[in-house]
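Quick start: what a row looks like.
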Amino acid sequence: MPEQISKKLGFIGAGQMAEALARGFIDKGVVKADTVHCTDPVPARREVFERFGAKSENSNVDVAKNSEVIFLAVKPQYVATVLKEIKQHLTDQHIVVSIAAGIPLAAMKDSAGDDKRLVRVMPNTPCLVGETASAMCLGGKANDADGDIVKTLFNAVGTIFKVDEKLLSAVTGLSGSGPAYVFVMIEALADGGVRAGLPRDIAQQLAAQTVLGSAKMVLDTGKHPGALKDMVTSPAGTTIAGVHELERCGARAAFINAVLAATTRADELSKL
């Protein structure tokens, strides 16, 4: 069982990512439902939180007053506005966690003040199924103990790594954008199955399960992906023929270039 966090959580913004995090924290027993507070301009989103036991608040300030770990789950352009609104209600006991893409810690500190405990997290959409791959960096007055709290929360819904902020663009390019690359790969594998004669529904299930199982082998065995690939590629067999075709088409370079392109774009957006 994950360690339980005694602090009250608040979500400013109750969209799908916030819901996935809150549900995951509660389902894994890291926090109790009645210690989670939220607010959102859309009543239906607040009602979703209420249905799994969280408390709905009328304003951002109310969330700040009733929480100790505050998640900023709003669109990036609203982060500064929210921080300025709740600034005077933040104490030295608050930890402010932003999951908004592209907003650096320096910008958060400008809006919240130099004395605030700030954490920036880059999650990804598999958070919606409790399997996020994320990274975080600390800013302001945040300390290692604050980082441990955030790590405990996110490890309950996947995995999280602490990195220097300068590496968050690379995290965005790899795990932040990575699900899209994997979805493209699953779709292409399924298309290949259909081209070879399989029914679409079976091809898609086989492709998705193959990716899921292969990823689990990497994580569970700790072996290098290349070593696991070699286990499948028998001499002059079917798999090495397929791998040869992937290499001929530059598949490996395409994935590398996709990560680098997304990283470059993340760097550009963080400087706007």
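That is the whole record. The chain has a mean pLDDT of 95. Residues 200-221 form the longest helix (22 residues).
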